[in-house]
Amino acid sequence: MSQYWYDEGWSRPVKRSSLFIEALWLFGMIALFVIGIGLFFLFLGFVLILLIPGFLYSLWRLTRRPKSVSRAGVPQPLSRQQTVEIYLEDRRER
User: Fold this and answer.
1) How far apart are CA 65 and CA 25, in angstroms?
2) Is 71 helix (H, G, I), strand (E, B) or coil?
3) Taking the complete model, does pTM exceed 0.70, yes or no?
4) Read out DSSP for 46-57?
5) Where does the pLDDT of residue 39 fall: very low under 50, low under 70, confident under 90, or very high at 90 and above?
6) Phi-psi region for residue 16, left (φ > 0), alpha (ψ -120 to 50) or beta?
7) Among candidate residues 16, 17, 18, the one with its CA nearest the CA of residue 5
């Protein structure tokens, strides 16, 4: 492998970077890739640690019936008799 190479359109030789620099750059790229993968799996682990218990708890809550549900302030559906009375009362007013 030649120490010099000629780029197209260049008249003077351009010195190639040393093998040590190229190896260092390659090592750096590999290190960044490994660190990135590690951070990704670390983040994934934290997300799963937080999500799985919440998901299991919600499934557990769905299987349990509520102990007491306060009906205060919640309008109840009218019975058929009440509906007929309101209708007749409304007809009388007109």
Assistant:
1) 62
2) coil
3) no
4) HHHHHHHHHHHH
5) very high
6) beta
7) 16
Q: Where are the domains of the chain?
A: 1-66
CB 1 within 8 A of CB 15: no
| Amino acid letter, residue 65 | R
d(CA 43, CA 35): 12
Structure tokens at 76: 């109840």
Q: At which residue do the structure tokens 């209708």 appear?
A: 87
Residue with tokens 């260049």: 10
- By the 8 A CB rule, do 15 and 4 touch? yes
pLDDT tens figures, 23-32: 999 999 999 9
Amino acid identity, residue 62? Answer: L
Q: Which residues pair with 5 in a beta bridge?
A: 14
CB 14 within 8 A of CB 4: yes
